[in-house]
Design brief:
InterPro entries: NCS2 (IPR006043), Xan_ur_permease (IPR006042). Its main location: membrane. It is a multi-pass membrane protein. The chain is about 65% helix and about 5% strand. With about 425 residues, the protein is mainly alpha-helical. The protein has one domain. The strands form three sheets. It has a two-stranded antiparallel sheet with strand order 1-4. Strands 2-3 form a two-stranded antiparallel ribbon. Helix 2 packs antiparallel against helix 13, helix 4 packs across helix 11 and helix 8 packs across helix 17.
Length: about 425
C-alpha cells in the first residue's frame, strides 16, 4: 500500500486545494453533463446537483468517505421511458423523472434503515453476481442503438461529416484511456469530448450563436424553458425507475469496497454501508427536488484518488464547491449546449460498451459457472428481456422499461429456482 500524499482528514494548502479540486471536477465533468444531454435535462442543474449531492454525502458519512457523486448512467433508459424524451408523438414531461428519482432516493433510505437494523448479508443474497452482472450488460447494450444513431445520423439521416466527428471523439477517448498512465487516463470521457469538439469546430459543425448571446453569470434553469412539467406520482413512473436500484445499490457497494482498498479503510464497517447508501439516496432525492438526474458515486474520481494518492475529503468538498460555482457560468453552460450530438454519440459508444464489458468482467471475477443450468437460465432471461424489450407495454398507458422488468425477473428467479447459494461470509472478507 503506497503512502498517502494527503490522508483522509489532512488539509491541503490553498494552492493544492484548488489544483486537486479542479482535477476531481474535470474527472467527473464529462460523464455528469453527458447524462442530462442524453435525456433532455439541464446540464447546468446536473452539475449544480452533483456538487450539492456530494456535500450531502460527505455530511452523512461523517466526512470519512472521499467519494464524489455524479449523474447515474443506469437511469438513462428509464428516464427516457417515463419522460417521453425522444419518442415520436409523445408529450415530453421531465417532471416524471423527478418523481421517479425521488422515489429512488426513498428506496435507498429504506434499504439503509434495514441494513442499519439487520446487517447487509441479506442484500448480498438478493443481489448476487448472477443477477447483477447481466443487468449491467443490459444497461450498456440496451443503449448501444442510441449511441450509434447519435454518432451517425442528423435529423434521422446519415451524415458523414458528423460521423467523422464521432470517430475522432471515440479514437481520442480510447487513446487517453489505453495509452496514458497518469492523471489523463482517469478522465478519458472529458478529454475525448474536448478533442471531438475541437475537431467539430475545425470542420464547421458548431454554432456559437448561443454562447455569444449568453450572460457571463446566469442562474441555472431549474425547469427547462418552454417545457410543461407535471408532477404526479403514478405506478408507471415507480415501476419504470425504482427497480433500477437493484443495479445502482450493487454498484455502490462495489465502489465502497474499491475505494476502501485505495485509501486503506473498511467503509462497509465504518462509517457503515447504511450511512453511505443513505448519503447516496439523499443526494439523489435532493437532486430531483431541483430538477437534476439521479446520482451515484463515481469510479472516475476513485481513479483520481488512486493515481494521485490525495485522499483528503477537503479536496472532494472543494470539487463539489467548484462544480456548484461553474454551474452558474452562463457562457460555459451555453458552450456545453453547442457540443454536437455526434461527439456525444462517439463518446457514448465507448462508455456504453465499457458498461456492458464490466458486466462480463463480473461474471469472470466471480467464477460464474455457465455449465450450471440455473445460472444459464437466470442470465439468459435477464439478457433477452432487458435488451429485447426496450419498453414492454401492458396497456395503453402502462409500460415497464425492459431493464427494470429484467431486474425484477432476475431477482425473482434467483429467489425461487433451486440451488441458490447462501452468502454467509462478511462482504469485506470476500474482497480480501
Amino acid at each position: 500500500m503506497s503512502k498517502a500524499v494527503l490522508d483522509i482528514h489532512e488539509k491541503p494548502r490553498a494552492g493544492q486545494l484548488i489544483t486537486f479540486s479542479f482535477q476531481h471536477m474535470f474527472a467527473m465533468f464529462g460523464s455528469t453533463i453527458l447524462v442530462p444531454k442524453l435525456v433532455g435535462l439541464s446540464p447546468a442543474i446536473a452539475l449544480l446537483t452533483s456538487g450539492i449531492a456530494t456535500i450531502i454525502f460527505l455530511l452523512v458519512t461523517q466526512f470519512k468517505v472521499p467519494a464524489y457523486l455524479g449523474s447515474s448512467f443506469a437511469f438513462i433508459s428509464p428516464i427516457l421511458l417515463v419522460t417521453g424524451f425522444g419518442q415520436a408523438g409523445v408529450e415530453v414531461n421531465p417532471g416524471n423523472a423527478m418523481i421517479g428519482a425521488m422515489a429512488v432516493g426513498v428506496v435507498y433510505g429504506i434499504v439503509s434503515l434495514l441494513i442499519w437494523k439487520t446487517g447487509y448479508k441479506w442484500l448480498m443474497n438478493i443481489l448476487p453476481p448472477i443477477v447483477v452482472a447481466p443487468v449491467i450488460i443490459v444497461i450498456g447494450l440496451g443503449l448501444s442503438g442510441v449511441a450509434v444513431d447519435m454518432a451517425m445520423n442528423v435529423d434521422g439521416e446519415y451524415n458523414g461529416l458528423h460521423f467523422s466527428a464521432a470517430l475522432v471523439t471515440l479514437a481520442a477517448a480510447i487513446i487517453f484511456n489505453v495509452f496514458f498512465k497518469n492523471i489523463l487516463s482517469a478522465m478519458p470521457i472529458l478529454l475525448g469530448i474536448v478533442v471531438g469538439y475541437i475537431y467539430s469546430v475545425i470542420v464547421g459543425i458548431v454554432d456559437f450563436t448561443a454562447v455569444q448571446n449568453a450572460n457571463f453569470l446566469a442562474m441555472p434553469d431549474f425547469l427547462i424553458p418552454g417545457v410543461d412539467y407535471e408532477f404526479k406520482v403514478t405506478s408507471a413512473i415507480l415501476i419504470g425507475m425504482v427497480p433500477v436500484v437493484i443495479v445502482t445499490i450493487s454498484e455502490h457497494i462495489g465502489h465502497q469496497l474499491v475505494l476502501g482498498k485505495v485509501v486503506n479503510r473498511n467503509y462497509v464497517k465504518d462509517p457503515g454501508l447504511h450511512r453511505s447508501l443513505l448519503g447516496d439516496g439523499l443526494g439523489t432525492f435532493a437532486s430531483a427536488l431541483i430538477g437534476g438526474p439521479p446520482k451515484t458515486t463515481y469510479g472516475e474520481n476513485i481513479g483520481v484518488l488512486a493515481i494521485t494518492r490525495v485522499y483528503s475529503v477537503y479536496v472532494i468538498l472543494g470539487a463539489a464547491i467548484v462544480a456548484i460555482i461553474v454551474s452558474f457560468s452562463g457562457q460555459l453552460m451555453a458552450l456545453i449546449e453547442t457540443i454536437p450530438t455526434a461527439v456525444l454519440g462517439g463518446i457514448s459508444i465507448l462508455l456504453f460498451g465499457i458498461i456492458a464489458a464490466s458486466g462480463l468482467r463480473m461474471f469472470v471475477e466471480n467464477n460464474i459457472d455457465f455449465g450450471n443450468n440455473r445460472n444459464m437460465v437466470i442470465a439468459s432471461v435477464i439478457l433477452v428481456v432487458g435488451i429485447g424489450g426496450a419498453a414492454m407495454r401492458f396497456t395503453e398507458s402502462f409500460a415497464i422499461e425492459g431493464m427494470a422488468l429484467a431486474s425484477i425477473i432476475g431477482v425473482v428467479l434467483n429467489l425461487v429456482l433451486p440451488g441458490r447459494e447462501i452468502v454467509e461470509k462478511d462482504i469485506y472478507e470476500i474482497e480480501e
